[in-house]
Structures are given as C-alpha cells and as structure tokens.
C-alpha cells in the first residue's frame, strides 16, 4: 500500500521479527516433514533453502550435529536503493541447543554492542573497534556480499564469546515470513505492555490505511491529521499475520519505554507463538496447509548449513517442542549505554559476558540456575488479562482479536 511504501522510505524496517522466525522455520519443517513425505520431501525443499559458506573461521568442525548445536540468526538492513550505505546486521541472535537436545536458548546481542571486529583480508578490511552490526557491512563490501558479511559477523561473535563456533546460520526475508504466517492462519499472541504502532494507522475520515506519524531525524513525532495509530492493548489475542508482524516491529512507543529490549521480548514471544501454532492439530493434520507452508519456506529463509544436509538438521531438531524454548535477556533487559569518541554504544555487563561464555562451553543450564533473572519469564504471558478488544484490519474493517 502507498502508506507502507512511505514508511519504508522514511524509516528502515526493524528486523527482529525476521530473525526470530528462522529457528521456528527449521522446527516447523521438522514438525511437518515426517507427516507428508519424510526425507524425499525434505530433499526437495533443501535446494530452495540451503546455501554453502558464510561461517569462515567460526564454523564448527565436522559435519555432524549430535552434540551441542549453535546457530547464528541474522537480520540484515541491506538499504535497498542506497548501496553506498552498505549493509548492516540489524538483529543478531544466538540459538543454542545443548548436547542433550532438550531445549533451545535464544540470546540476542544488542546491535550497538561495542566489540572488536577482526581483520578480514577478503574485503581488505583491516579490523577495528565498533558496533557489532558494522561487522556485516565490513564483510559485505568490496565484493564480499551476503556470505562475506555473515562470515565476518560470525568471526566477530566468535571472538566476543571466547571461541563459540557455529553449526549453521540463517539470513531471513521479511516479506517471505509474512506469507509463511499467513499460510499458518495467524498466531495467538499475549501483549504484555501497551504498544502504539508508528508504521500502521487508519484515517478516521476515509478508513484507509496509512503511516500515522510525522518523522523528524528518523523518529516519530506528531500524529498526522485525521490519523489514528494502530494500538495493541495488554491481553491475549488471535492475531492475523499483519498484526503480529506489525506488533513485533515496534520499539519507539512502548508503554515501558524499553525500546529494543522490549521489542526483543515481544519477538521472542512471537517465535513461541508461531511454534505453538505450527504444531497445533489444525496445522499438523492439514497436509494442504503444511505443503503451502513448505512452499513458502524458500522465500523466507537463506540457511547456511555448514555442509550438513537439511534432512539431518530437520530430524535432529524435530523432537524440540515450543515449551522447551527458553528466551534470555542480556543486561537484564536494561540499557547500558556509553558514549565513546562521540559514538553511543551498548556495553555488555559481566553477567551478559558470562552467559556468552556459558553458551560457548555448553553450560547454559547450570549458569541460568544461578542467574534466573536472565530468563524472560514474561515473554509469552500478559501482565494482566483484560477482555478482548478490536482492531482495524488492512481492509479497514474491524476484526476481533
């Protein structure tokens, strides 16, 4: 729509939503594959999803995944139409599965985290200190492309964590995931704080959708005349794909003023909600719906498999359930900002660094036993449970959630 096109020009799309669906996409294929064709079907979809390379010196050795598994999930702002700005990793998540294969721990690294970025001769980058999201840009320049950007980012995370190596990685596509969630029939979400959308609104006179806010310096300021912003009230609702994806994009007008940390929590909620829907009987017992979901997978996920067949990934992960997913917060979900040399950085506290070390050593369970405050207990539950509300759909008609 025209309103949404304007939003993209004025403000880049946040990509946490893209990221947090990647692991869910893999588990989703795992859940559906055994029901509608097994290995032959997964071999067919493998060519649409998997890619080689992308991990460099941070790749795990060997081509088996029977021990601890680490995935690097990356959302990238590629600045379409503005190539001179390069590409940066907007979202960085480590998905850690212990050797017991009975849990998934999701840990987000704030994109403004101050790190040392190692030299990368492939693109003539000499190394330096900066924000972690700049590592992808430095690796993608001078012909490095997506694979070079992912490789340097993986090597940067490896150094930050004290030696963590990755069994695989993924880059995702926002529009592809919207189709994926549409194919599932939406998700059930619990809103834990009042959220006002800066991307989606409705004209109170015409009922048409549009961008509700004026922007100054890439930040929302005042409402445009006759515009009402889409608002998500505290409570649990069945959300259409457009609602869920719009909700998890927001970071500017959150009731708790928790910005990126709040957005991270909401998107952790989103992946759990998606997995629950994917493994529900309404999806799992519907071969037509599962086939549609699988057909959309290639549009949503670029998976770098580290020379491990997708079928091996799928059958290794297929036993993991949504309630075994543990979402974690670094810095206790609070900002630790520091200005150095005129640049504002996010600084990881000692507990955050210790968590990353525990991931590298496959000791996350014991670490969390002593640091339960790092678990996002409210990632999938509302603060209160009010009655159902209504929201405007993209067609301008009310839709009960």
TrEMBL record:
It comes from Dactylosporangium maewongense. It holds the Pfam family LytR_cpsA_psr. InterPro entries: LytR/CpsA/Psr_CW_biosynth (IPR050922), LytR_CpsA_psr (IPR004474). It comes from the Bacteria. This is Cell envelope-related transcriptional attenuator domain-containing protein. Belongs to the LytR/CpsA/Psr (LCP) family. Residues 387-401 have a biased composition (Polar residues). Residues 371-401 are annotated as: Disordered. The lineage of its organism: Bacteria, Bacillati, Actinomycetota, Actinomycetes, Micromonosporales. PANTHER family: POLYISOPRENYL-TEICHOIC ACID--PEPTIDOGLYCAN TEICHOIC ACID TRANSFERASE TAGU. Gene3D superfamilies: LCP protein (3.40.630.190). Residues 88-279 form the Cell envelope-related transcriptional attenuator domain.
């Amino acid at each position: 729509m025209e309103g949404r096109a304007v939003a993209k020009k004025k403000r880049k799309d946040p990509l946490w939503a893209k990221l947090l669906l990647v692991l869910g996409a893999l588990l989703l294929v795992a859940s559906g594959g055994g029901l509608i064709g097994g290995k032959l079907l997964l071999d067919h979809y493998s060519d649409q999803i998997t890619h080689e390379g992308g991990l460099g010196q941070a790749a795990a050795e060997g081509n088996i995944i029977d021990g601890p598994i680490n995935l690097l999930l990356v959302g990238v702002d590629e600045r379409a139409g503005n190539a001179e700005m390069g590409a940066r990793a907007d979202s960085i998540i480590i998905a850690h599965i212990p050797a017991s294969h009975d849990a998934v721990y999701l840990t987000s690294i704030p994109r403004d985290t101050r790190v040392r970025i190692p030299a990368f001769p492939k693109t003539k980058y000499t190394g330096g200190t900066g924000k972690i999201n700049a590592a992808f840009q430095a690796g993608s320049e001078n012909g490095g492309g997506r694979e070079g950007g992912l490789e340097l980012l993986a090597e940067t995370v490896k150094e930050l964590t004290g030696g963590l190596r990755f069994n695989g990685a993924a880059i995702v596509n926002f529009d592809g995931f919207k189709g994926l969630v549409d194919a599932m029939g939406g998700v059930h979400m619990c809103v834990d704080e009042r959220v006002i959308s800066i991307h989606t609104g409705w004209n109170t006179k015409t009922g048409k959708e549009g961008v509700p806010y004026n922007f100054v310096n890439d930040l929302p300021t005042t409402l445009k005349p006759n515009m009402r912003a889409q608002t998500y009230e505290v409570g649990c609702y069945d959300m259409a794909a457009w609602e869920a994806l719009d909700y998890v994009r927001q970071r500017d007008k959150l009731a708790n003023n928790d910005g990126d940390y709040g957005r991270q929590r909401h998107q952790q909620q989103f992946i759990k909600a998606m997995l629950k829907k994917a493994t529900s009987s309404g999806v799992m017992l519907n071969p037509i719906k599962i086939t549609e979901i699988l057909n959309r997978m290639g549009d949503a996920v670029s998976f770098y498999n580290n020379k491990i067949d997708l079928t091996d990934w799928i059958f290794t992960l297929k036993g993991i359930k949504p309630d075994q997913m543990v979402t974690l917060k670094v810095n206790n979900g609070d900002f630790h900002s520091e200005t150095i040399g005129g640049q504002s950085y996010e600084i990881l506290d000692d507990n955050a660094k210790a968590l990353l070390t525990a991931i590298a050593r496959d000791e996350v369970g014991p670490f969390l036993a002593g640091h339960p405050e790092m678990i996002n207990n409210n990632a999938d539950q509302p603060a209160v449970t009010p009655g159902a509300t209504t929201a405007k759909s993209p067609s301008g008609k009310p839709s009960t959630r």
